[in-house]
UniProtKB/TrEMBL annotation:
Gene3D superfamilies: Glutaredoxin. The keyword Phosphoprotein does not apply. One of its GO terms (molecular function) is structural constituent of ribosome. Pfam families: MRP_L53. Keywords: Mitochondrion, Ribonucleoprotein, Ribosomal protein. Its main location: mitochondrion. It comes from the Eukaryota. This is Large ribosomal subunit protein mL53. Belongs to the mitochondrion-specific ribosomal protein mL53 family. One of its GO terms (cellular component) is mitochondrial large ribosomal subunit. It is found in: Mitochondrion. It comes from Lachancea dasiensis. PANTHER family: 54S RIBOSOMAL PROTEIN L44, MITOCHONDRIAL (PTHR28236), LARGE RIBOSOMAL SUBUNIT PROTEIN ML53 (PTHR28236:SF1). InterPro entries: Ribosomal_mL53, Ribosomal_mL53_fung.
Length: 98
C-alpha cells in the first residue's frame, strides 16, 4: 500500500468485529517514520453497543478525502482502493518534477 501521500488517517472499528483485521493491518502498514513526520493517525475502538459505524478515512496531501467501510472490504481491497489515488498523486508528482 502506498502511504507516502497520506496526511491524516482516521480508523474506527470494533476490535471484536470482522472489520478488526482489515483495520489493524491498515494501521500497521503505515511506516513508523511516516508517523513521526507528519501523518496524523486517529483510531477509535467501538463497542458492540456503539451506534457509530466502522470507517477508514484517509486524507491525502492534495486535501482529497476517501472513506471506506472495513466490514465490506478486505485489507487488500482497502489497499487497492486507496492506492488508486496515491498512484494519481505519484504520477502528478513525477510529471511536475521533470
Amino acid at each position: 500500500m502506498i502511504t507516502k501521500y497520506f496526511t491524516k488517517v482516521v480508523v474506527k472499528f470494533n476490535p471484536f468485529g470482522k472489520e478488526a483485521k482489515s483495520a489493524r493491518l491498515l494501521l500497521s502498514a503505515i511506516p513508523p517514520a511516516q508517523r513521526l513526520t507528519g501523518t496524523s493517525i486517529q483510531n477509535k475502538l467501538l463497542t458492540a453497543a456503539s451506534t457509530e459505524s466502522p470507517i477508514v478515512k484517509i486524507t491525502f496531501k492534495d486535501k482529497t478525502e476517501m472513506e471506506a467501510d472495513p466490514t465490506k472490504m478486505t485489507f487488500k481491497e482497502l489497499g487497492n482502493y486507496f492506492d488508486r489515488h496515491s498512484r494519481k498523486l505519484g504520477l502528478k508528482e513525477s510529471i511536475e518534477s521533470q
